[in-house]
């Protein structure tokens, strides 16, 4: 049977996140690093009682939409410079303390003479081996979960793999493809395509919001700074905290040095400030963030409708199956937060349908359901599966959404994890289709004479992920 030619875009969707509390589990700082958390550290957090994936009786998966973030990467050049500045700053603090004949008994031994593990390194932000493994293993697991959809040997014309114009995204796409098609052909030349666009409309918006976000973070930074000064009797400043990162914990599994300076409650506060920034700039905190996901939302629904409309579903006597073209959109940092724009929180569904800003996540120790480590860790992913259920009397097609490989319920679909396709379009998709991407993002292209043959989806990808060039990413985002 010939494979069909309908390419499947990888799409991000909103999902509800199960609450997880530091108090409910043994504290591991590697699970509390916001969006620089490694996939393996949080993939199963909060999922002990959650839904397990299973194919419903009488149904067959026939179509996939997936978007995945790049895997764990090294610190960017900007972050490495900041870590070098931190080393100099700590050296200066120790020197000043000695000159003033202050006691250093409370100062950890490692802090005296600490140097950045990445000092002298010329490159930054590239995918590391841990990140390659994350995507390679994800590809293997998806192939094992949907074996009938990946029987064909790999060919770039049949299975297009797409990535943004960032080396770590491209390398992640290759690693995923190697896992997905291991023993099914070689990726070879042309293994992935770069998504190109000249849209930078959201960059100015983000910059305009950063001062207000920083104002919200200042009291927490000052509070923790004062505690550190009292605890270690060194003149730590707010700038010290801004230079601090937890790259050692995230990338090197070193948890008893930089991370060891802070108590679990202080780590929770620092994590909350990062999550707060993400919530405002990329999540429910601003109405415009809902609208960023509109082209993505249209694209995934269109791909499914097209697959069904153009005889991409093959009926067989006593059976039903379909072979599709598959592709991977491997993206940078923030795509996962925008998926939150479709699937909604149970108690906030009406506000989300109206695209109204939600209240900020409450300060720890209060429970919250917005965690950067859960929404968009390294290699975080969202998979939307279209099922054919020919014997079902109410609907022949159903949608199931997996976030980080776990099914999630959809409040817009009666809190079910298995939603009739038409109901999905009416209750979850339709409320967000009143906006037009081009009218929202009117920033002129820098080079108007260049015309790229891009869909709105591709324009959105650049919009979402062109924010973080190595030289311009924010301190926390660079970790």
TrEMBL record:
<keyword id="KW-0472">Membrane</keyword>
<keyword id="KW-1003">Cell membrane</keyword>
<protein>
    <recommendedName>
        <fullName>Multiple inositol polyphosphate phosphatase 1</fullName>
        <ecNumber>3.1.3.62</ecNumber>
        <ecNumber>3.1.3.80</ecNumber>
    </recommendedName>
</protein>
<keyword id="KW-0325">Glycoprotein</keyword>
<dbReference type="InterPro" id="IPR016274">
    <property type="entry name" value="Histidine_acid_Pase_euk"/>
</dbReference>
<keyword id="KW-0175">Coiled coil</keyword>
<keyword id="KW-0732">Signal</keyword>
<feature type="coiled-coil region">
    <location>
        <begin position="80"/>
        <end position="107"/>
    </location>
</feature>
<dbReference type="GO" id="GO:0003993">
    <property type="term" value="F:acid phosphatase activity"/>
</dbReference>
<feature type="signal peptide">
    <location>
        <begin position="1"/>
        <end position="23"/>
    </location>
</feature>
<comment type="similarity">
    <text>Belongs to the histidine acid phosphatase family. MINPP1 subfamily.</text>
</comment>
<dbReference type="GO" id="GO:0005886">
    <property type="term" value="C:plasma membrane"/>
</dbReference>
<dbReference type="InterPro" id="IPR000560">
    <property type="entry name" value="His_Pase_clade-2"/>
</dbReference>
<keyword id="KW-0378">Hydrolase</keyword>
<dbReference type="GO" id="GO:0034417">
    <property type="term" value="F:bisphosphoglycerate 3-phosphatase activity"/>
</dbReference>
<dbReference type="GO" id="GO:0052745">
    <property type="term" value="F:inositol phosphate phosphatase activity"/>
</dbReference>
<dbReference type="Pfam" id="PF00328">
    <property type="entry name" value="His_Phos_2"/>
</dbReference>
<dbReference type="InterPro" id="IPR029033">
    <property type="entry name" value="His_PPase_superfam"/>
</dbReference>
């Amino acid at each position: 049977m010939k494979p069909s030619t309908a390419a499947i875009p990888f799409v991000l969707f909103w999902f509800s996140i199960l609450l997880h509390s530091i108090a409910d589990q043994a504290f591991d700082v590697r699970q509390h690093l916001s969006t620089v958390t490694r996939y393996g550290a949080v993939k199963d957090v909060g999922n002990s009682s959650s839904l397990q994936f299973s194919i419903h009786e009488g149904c067959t998966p026939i179509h996939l939409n997936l978007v995945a973030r790049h895997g764990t990467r090294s610190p960017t050049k900007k972050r490495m410079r900041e870590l070098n500045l931190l080393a100099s700053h700590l050296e200066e603090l120790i020197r000043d303390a000695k000159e003033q004949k202050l006691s250093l008994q409370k100062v950890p031994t490692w802090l005296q003479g600490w140097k950045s593990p990445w000092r002298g390194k010329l490159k930054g932000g590239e995918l590391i081996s841990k990140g390659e493994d994350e995507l390679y293993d994800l590809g293997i697991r998806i192939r094992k979960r949907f074996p009938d959809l990946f029987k064909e040997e790999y060919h770039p014309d049949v299975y297009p793999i797409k990535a943004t114009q960032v080396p770590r995204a491209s390398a992640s796409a290759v690693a995923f493809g190697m896992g997905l098609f291991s023993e099914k052909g070689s990726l070879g030349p042309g293994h992935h395509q770069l998504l190109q666009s000249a849209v930078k409309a959201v960059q100015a918006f983000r910059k305009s919001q950063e001062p207000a976000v920083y104002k919200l973070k200042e009291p927490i930074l000052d509070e923790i700074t004062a505690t550190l000064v009292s605890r270690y009797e060194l003149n730590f400043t707010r700038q010290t905290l801004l230079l601090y990162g937890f790259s050692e914990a995230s990338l090197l599994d070193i948890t008893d040095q930089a991370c060891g300076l802070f108590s679990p409650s202080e780590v929770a506060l620092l994590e909350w400030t990062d999550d707060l920034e993400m919530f405002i700039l990329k999540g429910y905190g601003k109405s415009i963030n809902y609208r960023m996901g509109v082209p993505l939302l249209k694209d995934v629904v269109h791909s499914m409708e097209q697959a069904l409309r153009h005889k991409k579903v093959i009926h067989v006597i006593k059976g039903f199956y379909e072979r599709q073209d598959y592709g991977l959109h491997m993206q940078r940092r923030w795509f996962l937060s925008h998926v939150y724009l479709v699937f909604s929180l149970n108690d906030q569904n009406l506000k989300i349908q109206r695209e109204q800003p939600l209240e900020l996540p409450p300060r720890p120790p209060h429970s919250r359901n917005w965690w950067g480590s859960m929404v968009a860790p390294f290699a975080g992913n969202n998979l939307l599966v279209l099922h054919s259920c020919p014997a079902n009397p109410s609907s022949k097609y159903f949608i199931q959404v997996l976030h980080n490989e776990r099914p999630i319920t959809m409040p817009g679909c009666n809190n079910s994890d298995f939603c009739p396709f038409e109901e999905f379009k009416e209750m979850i998709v339709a409320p967000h289709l009143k906006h037009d991407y081009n009218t929202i993002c009117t920033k002129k292209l820098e080079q108007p004479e260049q015309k790229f043959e891009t869909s709105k989806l591709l324009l959105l990808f650049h919009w979402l992920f062109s924010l973080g060039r190595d030289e311009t990413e924010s301190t926390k985002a660079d970790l």
